[in-house]
């Protein structure tokens, strides 16, 4: 079956540091890939997505590239802010008519001033 | 306000009691989902619905019941609550698509404690 692997964290960075959160996946076919973010006390919201190999998703300074050859979708940001402190979930959506999404366990990011 | 809402936001109940968590969305999205979020497990799908009167099991359906008589509502019932059902529950919705690219929109969650 489908699966998503990411580190649980927490990841602690100083403000303006470079961020990488690794995500690798196992899936059949050609899944779509997502990063969701969950701020404290809130539900998840979409951060970015990519629907085919070599696509780059980007939003709010975050980027991730769909790498089919390495089955990866690593999240990066060049300069994190305190307001980026949240839990980040990598996810994939299987192809076909069923909207099932498989989530990773989430990586907690703490940015300190 | 438009969007997806859940009620109650917090609930404390006792073992053996029936509990219903409500979910309402204003977008007329076809798909709706219930997840539970637990430390070390991320989000796990409990049930989903492709349309009114169409529901199906997810990864962890035991002990839960759902219904969907109207497109906008998708209540989740714990028939006889157990301590292992203490969790944060999220409802989500998405539009219908033949592909698998649609974003899921999440509610704010319900924190349920079973004593």
Question: Can you walk me through this structure?
Answer:
The complex is a heterodimer of chains A (113) and B (115). By secondary structure, chain A is mainly β. Helix content of chain A is 0%, strand content 50%. Chain A has no helices and 12 strands. In chain A, strands 2, 5, 6, 10, 11 and 12 form a 6-stranded mixed beta sheet that branches. In chain A, strands 3-9-8-7 form a 4-stranded antiparallel beta sheet, with no helix packed on it. A two-stranded antiparallel ribbon of chain A has the order 1-4. With 115 residues, chain B is an all-beta fold. Helix content of chain B is 0%, strand content 50%. Chain B is built from no helices and 11 strands. Chain B has strands spanning 4-7, 10-13, 19-25, 31-38, 42-51, 54-57, 64-66, 76-78, 87-94, 105-106, 110-114. The radius of gyration of chain B is 13 Å and the shape is globular. The mean pLDDT of chain B is 91. Chains A and B meet through strand 5 and strand 6 of A and strand 5, strand 9 and strand 10 of B.
How are the SSEs placed, and which strands pair?
The complex is a heterodimer of chains A (113) and B (115).
Chain A (H helix, E strand, L loop, with lengths): L2 E4 L4 E4 L4 E3 L1 E4 L5 E7 L5 E7 L5 E4 L2 E4 L9 E3 L8 E8 L7 E3 L3 E6 L1
Parallel strand pairs in A: 2-12
Antiparallel strand pairs in A: 1-4, 3-9, 5-6, 5-10, 7-8, 8-9, 10-11, 10-12
Chain B lengths: L3 E4 L2 E4 L5 E7 L5 E8 L3 E10 L2 E4 L6 E3 L9 E3 L8 E8 L10 E2 L3 E5 L1
Parallel strand pairs in B: 2-11
Antiparallel strand pairs in B: 1-3, 3-8, 4-5, 4-9, 5-6, 7-8, 9-10, 9-11
Give the terminus-to-terminus CA distance of chain A.
41 Å
User: Which range best describes the helical content of chain A: under 10%, 10-25%, 25-40%, 40-55%, 55-70% or over 70%?
Assistant: under 10%
Q: If you compute it from the alpha carbons, what radius of gyration of chain A comes out, rounded to the nearest whole angstrom? A: 14 Å
- Ranges of chain B with pLDDT <50 over ≥5 residues? none
Q: If interface size is counted as residues with C-beta under 8 Å from the partner's C-beta, which chains form the largest one? A: A-B, 27 and 26 residues
The gyration radius over C-alpha positions of chain B equals 13 Å
Number of continuous helical runs of chain A: 0
Number of strands of chain A: 12
Strand content of chain B: over 45%
Tell me the helix content of chain B. under 10%
Series of secondary-structure elements of chain B, N-terminal to C-terminal: EEEEEEEEEEE
Q: How many H/I helices of chain B?
A: 0
Largest sheet of chain B: 7 strands, mixed
Q: Structural class of the secondary elements of chain A?
A: mainly beta
Tell me the fraction of residues in β-strands of chain A, as a range.
over 45%
Mean pLDDT of chain B: 91
Number of strands of chain B: 11
Low-confidence stretches of chain A: none
In whole angstroms, the N-to-C terminal distance of chain B is 33 Å
Shape of chain B: globular
